[in-house]
Each structure stands twice: as structure tokens, then as C-alpha cells.
Amino acid sequence: MRAKKLEKILIRGPNWVGDAVLAIPAIRAIRARFPEAEITLLVRPFVSGLFATAPFIDKVWSEPKPSSLADWIRITREIRNRQFDMALLLPNSFESALMILLGGVPKRIGYATDGRQWMLTDAVTAVSESRHQMQYYLDLVKVISATVESPSIEIEATRHERDTARKLLATEGIAYSAPFLALSPGAAYGTAKRWHEDRFANVADNLARELGFCVAVIGSEMERSIATRICERMASPTAVLAGKTSLETLIGVLAESSLMITNDSGPMHIAAALGVPTVAIFGSTDERVTGPCGPRTRIVKHRVECSPCLLRECPIDHRCMNGVTVDAVCRAARDLVQS
User: Fold this and answer.
1) Which of 73, 75, 284, 290 is a Cys-bridge partner for 192, taking CB atoms 3.0 to 4.6 Å apart?
2) Whole-prediction pTM value?
3) From the centroid of its chain, how far is CA 144?
């Protein structure tokens, strides 16, 4: 395949923030392979902020999940109208492949999953189910001879994102120049991924006292009650930002932070990609597949026979998270900050 023949490329991006971060090296590899092509990234609105100023994307096309057949047909027609030469499908769903097929894209690349192989011109068989998600996406772009030897997942916050974050922090009691650690105690997938609220509070208090940090608790609107309960347990100056940040502002908050303590979550991947010292607590999920990728990360995990179970709720005694101690997380944080 000659790069000059591919003038317009569509990348169907992942539907979750964490997966979208892990897809960045693959998207960069496509840009490097086709430097002159116009690359459009199609993603959900709650993911689009991650790529708003990305230099390796020409256009970000944001669409919510179709709520009706009419919506689905509208998007499919728009794909056809834009006349893409090639599409790369990062989600594994049948629906995403069908939309690209009916959208008339002549070259369609994706994994041969969910019974969709017949809809793809280049159907790729996954090498291993336990492969890290970042590598999983990189393996896919090898089909178009993209170079994947030195993948970069690093991102940078814009000055506007940082300034907006600092203004928000100031309204919540953290001075403009004050160092702070970020806590991400939620996890969208379910309670099995969540470490205990009292231990988050203890870790934050210990580290804030030792290192002279304030504390900012982040999360979604649905996780505000978790953030509030943690704040109520703490003696250190703490701001509850859960439900108060757009994705762009969250990027700014994390970029301004000096340390991140987190469950396995989307914000974990953002912080790691920003180069923020990130301590990630794992229990029910597999760090070999979804662990943070970045220059300054540590994983804390108490190994038990039933982990990783990948369940939303623990059916027994949550022993994987019960075994993660405050001391273990504090030690990992100190090592990172001092390294």
C-alpha cells in the first residue's frame, strides 16, 4: 500500500477514557505512517476532550452512542459522505464494523472478533488475551506497516487546561501555587475495583503531612458522595472536585498535581501519560492488561488466588483489596516522589 493514495483516514476510537489513552501510541503510529493524510478520529463526546488539541489528529468527530435507528443511519451516511479511504476500528464491536462497511469505506481494518470478520478487508487475529491493551492496539496498526518499536503514550496539558484547573482549585480552597496530591477513589466498572475509602483518607493524610501537600479528590458526578465521605475523614486541606471538571479541566488538574493515588481507572491512565507520579491500586483487574503506562508509575497489589476475576462486584470478601495496606501505598508513593 502506498501512503500517498490514502488521503482520508478514519479512526474509530475507543469508547472509554482509559482505553483512549492507551490507544494514543497506535494513533501516533498511523500519523507517522501517513504524514500527509487527513486523519479523523470518531469518538464519544466524553472522550473527545482528550484529543481536542492533539497534534496527531486533524479532526475530532464526536458522536454519542446512537439512541435510535435514525441516528445510526445518519452517522453511517455521514461516513459515506466524507469518503474515507481507510478506517481503523479500535473497538471490537460488531456494530462499529457494520457502520464502517455500510459507510462505504473501501479499506477496513480491525480485530476478527464478535463475528465481524466478513465485514473487514483486513481482519486481524489477536495474539494473546493477556496482552497489554496498549500493545493490543499497536499490533493492529502493524497491518498497515506502521512503525511501533518506540511507542509514545506521553501527553501534555495545554496552558488553558492548567489555568482553568488552577482557578477551580483556588475556588475549592487550594492556593494557586500550592502543591497537591490527587486522589481517584472511584472506578466506573464497579465496586470490586475500589480500594477502601478510609484507607484512601489515611494515605492522603499521611502523605499530605509528610510532603506538605494539599489534597484534591477527583471523580465523576456519581462518585461525589465517595469523595465527600473521604474528605470528611481527613484532617488535611482537601478539595472535592468530583463532578466539577470537564475532561479537559481534569487533564489540567492532573497535570498540575504532584502525585496521584488511584484505583484502576481512566484518570489513572491520564495521570500516567502526563508523567505525574502515579500509584495505582489493583485488585479484581489485571495489571498486565490495563496497568498504567508512563515513566513514573507504581502498582500496588495484594495477590490472591481469585484475582484477576474481572467482576463488577466481589461475591466473597474483597480479599484482594483488603490485603492492600496503607503502608504499602505510602511506601510506593514515597519511592516515586523521591526518585
Assistant:
1) 284
2) 0.94
3) 25
